[in-house]
């Protein structure tokens, strides 16, 4: 049956309504693809990405481990703005962040949060037209319970690879001990009052060497297929790398993945903690500062957005820190447990040999024997899916128990910038590809 045409005004109204529905649906898709944006994150967030380049996905571009409660912060930073500066590994067309109150003893009230591109490297000033206010579950404020974390809603922003970002939070009230990462090797900033969306950055007069509350930045990307997560100790943390220069071995790896033909297009997430061990964390009531790798694996690796492969650089502190582990089999048994749990989530695991520490305090013959024992087991091919020989890459051929002089930061344990670059070169990028092996 023929129907009379709608009046012109009614037709326009119908078209406008349909357009609004399309916009709402598109926004919901963008916000929802990553899974549970804005929720309190207590477990795995995202399954490993497999078709990101074709359909787009949330992939980790930057991350750090919440390693401890910051000393002398029983009240937190009430009435101050914290502007964290972080460096992306991959880019995208949208972004979201994770805030952690893991070591807090009371709820953390965040009444204002923002994300922006830095105007220039290391600057607290924002690039023009890049400032975005962040929301949480659709609200401009959030309260994060003690011991938990919170994922923001996504914002639409073109985020370049290898670019500094500014992530700013403001809390008006005391919040208890601050969850932080002390060895950032990146200058961040503090300002009095709520200067969360201050684009000029003039109020950020106090410099900081810590990252506070911020633990992840994910990007919405069609260009990357996943992320490689580096699980390690101070050598992965990059404690001797030149500050504000992005010269940790993970930074050099990210550059290789961005530029080398045939390389897997992965984000790189640095989950190193200075002093970290495979088997033992610090003692005390939970959550303890600097938990063992086995204790933090779910939080720092398996839950990261788009995680596809793990590179494990751990074991030296089990040998050097008291109580010292004298049985290489025990250390390797812990490494195998890490591998089993990663395999259960479909992640491939590349493990490293332990690097030289000859000349370092504590690096005595009994400890060297344990290091050699661990390396022999790792090189056997029966611990990890693949092996990267950081020992071979860094040692002095003329004195193989020591670091090559130009790769030594001076303490005979931690690499120099050149040493970190050599570590990244030693990693065969093809070993980052493929599926996890089910048995070793």
From TrEMBL:
InterPro entries: GDSL_Rv0518-like, SGNH_hydro, SGNH_hydro_sf. It comes from the Bacteria. GO terms for molecular function: hydrolase activity. Signal peptide: none annotated. The keyword Zinc-finger does not apply. Keywords: Hydrolase. Residues 230-422 form the SGNH hydrolase-type esterase domain. This is SGNH/GDSL hydrolase family protein.
């Amino acid at each position: 049956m023929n129907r009379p045409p709608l009046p012109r005004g009614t037709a326009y109204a119908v078209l406008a309504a349909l357009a609004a529905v399309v916009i709402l649906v598109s926004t919901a898709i963008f916000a929802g693809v990553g899974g549970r944006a804005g929720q309190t994150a207590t477990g795995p967030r995202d399954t490993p990405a497999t078709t990101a380049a074709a359909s787009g996905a949330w992939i980790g571009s930057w991350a750090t481990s919440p390693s401890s409660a910051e000393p002398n912060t029983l009240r937190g930073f009430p009435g101050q703005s914290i502007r964290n500066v972080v460096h992306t590994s991959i880019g995208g067309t949208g972004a979201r962040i994770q805030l952690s109150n893991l070591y807090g003893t009371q709820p953390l009230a965040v009444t204002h949060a923002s994300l922006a591109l830095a105007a220039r490297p290391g600057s607290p000033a924002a690039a023009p037209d890049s400032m975005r206010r962040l929301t949480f579950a659709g609200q401009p404020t959030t309260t994060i319970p003690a011991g938990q974390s919170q994922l923001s809603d996504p914002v639409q922003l073109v985020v370049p690879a290898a670019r500094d970002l500014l992530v700013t939070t403001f809390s008006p009230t005391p919040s208890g001990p601050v969850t932080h990462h002390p060895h950032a090797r990146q200058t961040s900033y503090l300002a009095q009052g709520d200067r969360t969306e201050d684009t000029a950055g003039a109020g950020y007069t106090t410099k900081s060497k810590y990252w506070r509350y911020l633990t992840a930045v994910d990007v919405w990307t069609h260009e990357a297929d996943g992320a490689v997560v580096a699980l390690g100790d101070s050598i992965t943390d990059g404690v001797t790398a030149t500050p504000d220069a992005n010269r940790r071995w993970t930074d050099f790896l990210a550059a290789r993945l961005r530029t080398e033909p045939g390389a897997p297009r992965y984000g790189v997430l640095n989950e190193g903690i200075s002093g970290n061990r495979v088997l033992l964390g610090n003692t005390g009531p939970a959550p303890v500062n600097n938990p063992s790798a086995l204790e933090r694996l779910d939080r720092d690796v398996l839950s990261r957005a788009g995680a596809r492969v793990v590179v494990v650089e751990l074991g030296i502190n089990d040998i050097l820190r008291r109580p010292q582990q004298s049985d290489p089999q025990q250390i390797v048994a812990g490494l195998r447990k890490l591998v089993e749990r990663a395999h259960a989530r479909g992640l491939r695991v590349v493990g490293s040999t332990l690097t030289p520490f000859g000349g370092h305090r504590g690096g005595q013959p009994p400890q060297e024997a344990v290091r050699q024992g661990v390396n022999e087991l790792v090189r056997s091919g029966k611990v990890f899916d693949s092996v990267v020989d950081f020992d071979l890459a860094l040692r002095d051929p003329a004195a193989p128990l020591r670091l090559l002089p130009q790769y030594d930061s001076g303490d005979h344990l931690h690499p120099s910038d050149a040493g970190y670059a050599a570590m990244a070169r030693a990693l065969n990028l093809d070993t980052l590809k493929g599926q996890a092996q089910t048995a070793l």
